[in-house]
Amino acid sequence: MTDLTKLSLAAARKGLTEKSFTSSELTRAYLDAIEKANSSLNAYVAVTGEQALAMAKTSDEKLAKGQGGALEGIPLGIKDLFATKGVHTQAASHILDGFKPEYESSVTANLWRDGAVMLGKLNMDEFAMGSSNETSYYGNVINPFRAEGSNADLAPGGSSGGSAVAVSAWLCVGATATDTGGSIRQPAALTGTVGIKPTYGRCSRWGIVAFASSLDQAGPIARTVEDAALMITSMAGFDVKDSTSVNIAVPDFAAAVERGVKGLTIGVPREYRIESMPAEIEKLWSQGLDWLRAEGAIVRDISLPHTKYALPAYYIVALAEASSNLARYDGVKYGLRVTGKDITDMYELTRAAGFGREVKRRIMIGTYVLSAGYFDAYYVKAQKVRTLIKKDFDDAFHAGVDAILTPATPSAAFGIGDEALATDPVAMYLQDVFTVTVNMAGLPGIAVPAGKDGKGLPLGLQLIGKPFDEETLFAAARVIERSVDIDFSPKPWW
Amino acid sequence: MSVDAKTVKRIGRLARIRIEEHEVAAYQQELNAILGFVEQLGELDVAGVEPITSVMPMTLRLRDDVVSDGSYPEQIVANAPLSEDNFFMVPKMIE
Which residue has the higher pLDDT, A430 or A61? Predict the structure, then answer.
């Protein structure tokens, strides 16, 4: 029998409905693969084997009767940021030690409603704060890709590093992820996988550990564009429990995948040609435009004049909201408690011990920019800049642009413990330079593998769409996917 | 705007994160690096620009003012490090 873990979601679904194999067999194949790989890749922080096999058995009973939902029997990995009832949910942080929620996040509930099977919880940067998955309390996640001729470990990107690696290294069919400034798209690009951050409001935030509430969105990481479309069709949907959830119908996204780009206008923002851009990223970008042109798209230069201000404004908005959201971890309601001589002492010691260095640094910045006397200069100013960034995009779309093509990241995967990145906090933040504008404007963005660098490491392109027009992104990303004549499978060394 | 050691300690207090004496210098340097980076927003004239309130045009939904959830205190305290009779337990706050 072929290796079941190598199948795409679409192929696995076909195999299950045609009874070529059962969900129990598929699930067991993944559990075996995780068992073999996880000590090397560290993608999972908790494996829920028994629960997975029980869910698979239920699915098999339905499938045997020709019943079942859109994802019936499909084994998925879940980022540790999603609350899963009775199961490890710690945002990869020490401060949530032992936390097992009494409730289920809306997004994962939607997946289980449609028959998906949970394999376990995926590693991530602590509280989704990081771009290399090096801030997790559970240790670094290792990229399954290595530079040609080297056996040095590379970072998978972050914060959804565990999600991207689990998908890339065949440790789940697809994974849930979240994106506040690029946390779906950047790790997807660095691991040769497809990741989409949908429009703000498309997926419910209820039951997802909050980082920056006005920017956070859930989305899938998958092996193909079609797989991502299938997953998000289940994940998305209106939810009264999230006040920013948008009450709009969820289309059958997979139906849009083969729609093509004929007649679409693709914008190329000149401000994304940053000075330090490597030649191979530049080349990848023009190659992507050629592919879209060849299928009938019209390519047009556009200007998004406030692009350079997106990253500094992001770091004000995101960290201000984070400092507020993370105030709830106080040693009283859940997780870690370090006793102190009085309650303030307990708070301070608990938070000092429970949060990692990057999280503390971000809470400190957020607290500072919100403190008396600085609120207008920082937070209000950043929210005004955000209005300008959104207007840049609105203007481009009103002028007839259907989608925007940019690189996904400024480089391919970098080393674990990269010194230049470790010594300068701002250098790591620059990983999000192409993705963060999308969160600031609430738009959908997809990262799709489009090439490899000189060392054989995957590179991705990003497509940015109009609000709630993920369908165009799937169609255009699919054109890139089928134009790329490269295999994005890592060579197993683990 | 540059952060000094005293400010680092004050921010630590506001954030309820204990900053040990030997950590102050590192935080000071990192906070100044990040604040220096965001300083470039100063170049931008935002006079007359409204701060964004919602990326998607929407008004907050209202619901009926009725109890729609609750009555499971044991679930609320299930994850508490210390609880008694469905109450969270904290160190004594009032003498």
Answer: A61
What range defines the domain where residue B20 resides? 5-43
Q: How far is residue A219's CA from residue A170's CA, in Å, rounded to a whole number?
A: 19
B72: in domain: no
Q: How confident is the model at residue A421 (pLDDT cuts 50, 70, 90)?
A: confident
| A94 burial level (CB within 10 Å; 0-12, 13-18, 19+) | middle
Q: What's the token pair of residue A352?
A: 């000092």
Please report the pLDDT score of residue A143 as a whole number: 98
A363: nearest CA partner in chain B = B15
Q: Go through A364-374 and write b for each residue having 16 or more CB atoms within 10 A of its CB, e for each that does not.
A: bbbbbbbbeee
Among the partner residues B33, B39, B81, nearest to A425 by beta-carbon distance: B33
How do residues A362-416 score in pLDDT, each as one tens digit? 999 999 999 989 999 999 999 999 999 999 999 999 999 999 999 999 999 999 9
pLDDT at A335 over 70: yes
Of the listed A23, A105, A131, A183, which one is catalytic? A183
Q: How far apart are the first and last CA of chain B?
A: 41
Closest B-chain CA to A430: B37
Q: What is the pLDDT of residue A1?
A: 53
A371 is catalytic: no
Q: What percent of chain A has pLDDT over 90?
A: 95
β-partners of residue A176 are A220
- Does B15 sit within 8 Å of A367, measured CB to CB? yes
Cβ–Cβ below 8 Å for A368 and B80: no
| Closest CA–CA distance from residue B73 to any residue of chain A (Å) | 11
Q: A25, exposed or middle or buried, with CB in 10 Å at 0-12, 13-18, 19+?
A: middle
A441-456, pLDDT tens digit by residue?
Answer: 999 999 999 999 999 9
Residue A387 near chain B (CB below 8 Å): yes
Q: Which CATH class is domain A1-494?
A: alpha beta
What's the alpha-carbon Rg for chain B, to the nearest Å?
22
3-state secondary structure chain B: CCCCHHHHHHHHHHCCCCCCHHHHHHHHHHHHHHHHHHHHHHHCCCCCCCCCCCCCCCCCCCCCCCCCCCCCHHHHCCCCCCEECCEECCCCCCC
Q: Is residue B27 part of a domain?
A: yes
Catalytic residue list contains A341? no
Residue B93 pLDDT:
81
Cα dihedral A319, A449, A444, A126 in deg (nearest 10) = -30
Nearest-angstrom CA–CA distance, A188 and A167: 9
Tally of structural domains, chain B: 1
What CATH number has the domain bearing residue B34? 1.10.20
CA A211 – CA A268 distance, rounded (Å): 31
Read off the pLDDT of residues A183-211 as tens digits, 9 standing for 90 and up. 999 999 999 999 999 999 999 999 999 99
Torsion of CA A308, A312, A314, A317, to 10 degrees: -140
Which residue of the set A159, A160, A245, A323 is catalytic?
Answer: A159
